[in-house]
Write a structure and sequence with these properties.
Blueprint: H1 27-42, H2 45-66, H3 68-93, H4 101-122, H5 134-145, H6 150-169, H7 176-233, H8 243-256, E1 267-273, H9 276-283, H10 285-302, E2 309-314, E3 317-322, H11 327-343, E4 359-365, H12 373-389, E5 395-398, E6 404-406
Parallel strand pairs: 4-5
Antiparallel strand pairs: 1-3, 1-4, 2-3, 5-6
């Protein structure tokens, strides 16, 4: 027996989206990624800033230990760099300032590189040439520590290397062979730093795309679930809840009854259209569907409370659940609803009590019946049965004493 081929998902997951070599995304995604990138960098910038400040202070201590005269020259440039680093950390902590984060980070990198060049020319010490290595350190800092975007980092690195070339070969303070060695070290360090930043940003962009695609899948799934839920709980003809939706909602409101969720009674109004079978026999099922939609629109328009709802209980029967409504107010609601439907004047020659469509209504309150959906519906059904027995086109209700009273 042959093995059945395994089914694989055809949905994209972000990892199957190819990034161009230059990493640029379409404009809308690029703007979103810029915010995403700044947010990820901002979370680590304060720690990176603290590390850089500690390194600068340590460098100044070492310089003072080796040569107090050298430290007298270097402490001001070091202080300038510390101030810029602290400013960058503050910018990272404020969401409304973060659009300047990369600019501030580049300012720190250029300050470190330029002050290194200046100190290398002005410090009178045999080891002063080591200060020129602040340029590759600045590039490393921009790419790895402060995480400047690759394109900005590449352009800035070329600029810093160019300034280093002019400084080394435009001055007689540094030997030509030593200048060449320093430049080669700087280029090698910058190349590795930029390569690392390129790989990091590529992976981050891939992760961003994966999250973006996953978010779209979740959004589509949520929309599909809502559509399915509506299809499962909403009556397609009248737009009211169907019986399943009514039972779920009624259980929810009854669950909160007596527990502080509802301040007054929950009242259920059950009604059906008088002699609806004869209406269908006389006018046809299409006209019957139109009649159902028209009748259902009346209680839907009258329900004002956000917790109230109207449901099609079955066939021509409807349920209106009124929350935070006393039995007295519910009876007023039911009578107004009955009157408004009668005043629609929908012709009904098959009716034995009127020439227009009418309804019979039964009302029951959760305070008069057990706080159970089945019992509440049963009480309302008994009242509806009494309304029909009393001649239809009227309202009946279950009283506080458990007796059915007809209005």
């Amino acid at each position: 027996m042959k093995n059945e081929p395994q089914r694989t998902s055809t949905l994209p997951n972000g990892n199957d989206i190819r990034l161009p070599w230059h990493l640029r995304l379409p404009a809308p995604l690029e703007r979103d990624f810029a915010d995403y990138f700044r947010g990820s960098v901002a979370s680590v910038t304060p720690w990176a800033a603290a590390s850089l400040v500690a390194l600068l202070i340590l460098a100044l201590i070492v310089e003072y230990t080796i040569s107090p005269e050298a430290a007298a020259v270097t402490w001001r440039p070091r202080l300038l760099c510390v101030m810029l680093i602290v400013a960058t950390a503050l910018i990272a902590r404020r969401a409304d300032w973060r659009r300047w984060l990369h600019v501030s980070s580049l300012a720190v990198a250029f300050a470190v590189a330029l002050t290194g060049n200046w100190m290398g020319l002005n410090v009178d010490h045999a080891m002063a040439f080591g200060l020129f290595l602040q340029t590759p350190l600045a590039i490393l800092m921009a790419c790895v520590v402060l995480r400047v975007p690759f394109h900005l980092a590449a352009v800035s690195s070329l600029a810093m290397l160019g300034i280093l070339v002019l400084t080394l070969f435009g001055s007689d303070r540094v030997d030509r062979d030593l200048s060449l060695v320093l430049l080669l070290l700087s280029v090698a360090s910058a190349s590795m730093s930029l390569f690392g930043q390129y790989i990091y940003e590529r992976l981050l962009r891939q992760h961003f795309l994966s999250e973006n695609v996953l978010f779209q899948h979740r959004d589509e799934l949520h929309s599909a679930n809502r559509i399915l839920e509506n299809q499962a709980t909403v009556d397609g003809l009248t737009g009211c809840l169907n019986r399943r939706g009514m039972e779920n909602r009624l259980d929810e409101v009854l669950h909160g009854f007596g527990r502080g969720g509802v301040s007054e009674r929950i009242t259920l109004v059950l009604f059906d259209i008088d002699f609806f079978k004869q209406y269908n026999d006389t006018y046809g099922h299409l006209a019957g569907d139109d009649c159902l939609k028209t009748v259902a629109s009346i209680p839907r328009s009258m329900a004002q409370n956000s917790k109230d709802f109207v449901a099609r209980y079955g066939g021509e029967e409807f349920v209106v659940v009124l929350v935070d409504t006393s039995l007295k107010d519910a009876l007023v609601f039911a009578e107004r609803m009955r009157t408004r439907i009668e005043q629609l004047g929908l012709p009904h020659t098959g009716s034995r009590i009127s020439q227009v469509v009418t309804i019979s209504v039964g009302v029951a309150s959760a305070g008069n019946c057990d706080n159970d959906a089945t019992n509440l519906i049963k009480c309302a059904d008994e009242a509806l049965y009494q309304a029909k027995g009393a001649g239809r086109n009227r309202v009946a209700y279950m009283s506080d004493q458990g007796r059915v009273v007809t209005l």
